[in-house]
Amino acid sequence: MGLDKLDTIRKLLAKAERAATAAEAETYTAKAMELMARHGVDAALLAVARPGSDRIGPQRVAMEDPYSAGKARLLGWTATALGCRWVLHGARGRKVAAVTVFGHESDRQRVELLYTSLQLQASTQLVRVRPPARGESVAAYRRSWLHGFAVEVHRRLTDAEERAAGAARSEAATGGPSVALVLADRREQVDRAYAAAFPRLASARRSVLSGSGFTAGARAGERADLGFGGLGAGNDRHRALGA
């Protein structure tokens, strides 16, 4: 993505974060989501014309409590929707130390930009949400709320990516590169590089959440703005959840 396009998306994200009403935020959301998805397709097509310009690699992001496991899912599912894979580090119980996002540089850039805003949006709302039923654990409700938020964000991002790819296919000139083939090839490249970089990953156990906040979190995810280093050593337990 060009610097001017990145700046436009950042401004839309900032406006959505400061919006006074849900309707105002949704206006910025729709435009930012459209730009983010379309720029992903543009970057993929540009990389075909400039081999080696959009290298595949890792980017490790530290997770912070509270709700580090939920934040890790939000980052990982955002990464999956935007053409990347992901790995958990130090996953123990309800805590995650870090997440490595693995993919093309332009897609990792999109993931970083979007997750930074989504994590802020979610954290701002999390401190206010409370379970409707007396006696339910606030922490359990918030964990399930964040899970619902991440699920809905993933759904919306996936839909936006598919719409952008479809629009690009319709606009492609005869004789140009096939958008569908370019995007499929990019994912295959990432899958091969990911398998080579992480040949002995263990499978993560699925999370079991007891709180009742999933639906409320999903509604918040539906409103969220979607504007569109080395791995290190040590004794981290790696968990693969990318699809």
From TrEMBL:
Tree of life domain: Bacteria
Protein name, per record: DUF2786 domain-containing protein
Domain DUF2786 positions: 6-42
Organism: Pseudonocardia yunnanensis
Ranges of residues in domain DUF7168: 72-172
Pfam families noted in UniProt: DUF2786, DUF7168
